[in-house]
# Entry
Amino acid sequence: MTTPTITSTTSLRDRRPNALREGWLIAGRDALHWVREPWGIIFGLAFNIMLILLFGFLFGGAIDVPGGGDYIAYLLPGMFALTMLFGLETTMTAMAEDAKRGITDRFRSLPIASASVALGRAIADLASSALSLAVLMLGGLLIGWRPTTGPAEIALAIVLLLWLRFAMLWLGIFLGLRFSGPGATTAVQVLVWPVGFLSTVFVSAETMPGWLGAIAEWNPVSATATAARELFGNPTGTTSGWLAENAVLAASVWPLVLTAVFLPLATAAYRRLRR
# Structure
């Protein structure tokens, strides 16, 4: 009489993927890259600090803030928002490099959830941006910037800044997967700089020609910058108009719209990668 043998070996293909756990593991892999090669983060921070010093102390004396107030107090929240936008290039470059070197294809061959790779990149880049924001806020305190509101308003301002970065993450992931050629990074830089400067980061829209000021006011970066200024208790540079009364609403809705558009596009681009 023979007894049937029961095997306890489970095929990797039968293992149920856990996107959140796998995303954390991939985020840890990305964080190790920064520990080994921190120069990208360091140079990025140095560049943003240079912009603060350049505009705050070299040009700031010649810039008046509508409604009154210190220019440094006006500038710093705008620079925080601009830093969240600049993170787009970092995300896009990292995703494009992984796709070009075949690392993304290796992840696709593993029995993991399809969302894990993008989720890992999002977690890692959001953590990096939170650290960069903390460093910039500390630097701002050292040169005289001060929030004048309570802890709840300050916390909400930080959440809205990171909310903008979260939306930029999915745009960066989509661009990195969709356009990985040698000129892709340059193309993103050409896109990011006009968007960053055609905003209220450095000057108020009220100092611009009417048509240009209207474009600047509807910039997502302007919405987040104005909301952060309001919540930090700093001069907003906006004395009238829709944005003056609805900055927090605009800063909440714009990233939601961008995420709703580019998160599905990023997911589809990942699934189509070298199919």
